[in-house]
Amino acid sequence: MALRRLVLAGGLAAALAAGLAGTAVGAASAVPLPPLPLLSPPDSLTVTVTGSGNPDAEGSWKLTCDDPPQGDHPAAARACERLEGFARAGENPFAPVPADALCAQVHGGPVTAQVTGVWQGRRIDARFSRANGCEIDRWENVEPLLPSVRG
Prior knowledge:
Subtilisin Inhibitor; 4 strands
């Protein structure tokens, strides 16, 4: 009886090994599929501007940088082009002004903006103002994502 179990176990092991070998050979001879493109969701942002005193430069707009750009942002195509330029250059237009930056003490008005959403796969929650020279430069650097509010 023990000999019979040993023979049966050996036969089962051989059958499994042959089946696995056949699978490996079949898989190796199959034509490989091309890799799937890495699809990332398009950039999707909400821009809210307040305090400009200009009704054309205030409001809240949606922007999705897809092909073609979508949303109600007044300069959607140009804003997406600008954001794509930052991405190609490896720059983050949403980074705050460094705390130790030396900034000209000029005031560009009480206008503020908030940009939220997703850009280049990163969650964005950035605030912009025109409180000093550095903040004014930061604002103007992302135009036309933010409206021009120069006086």
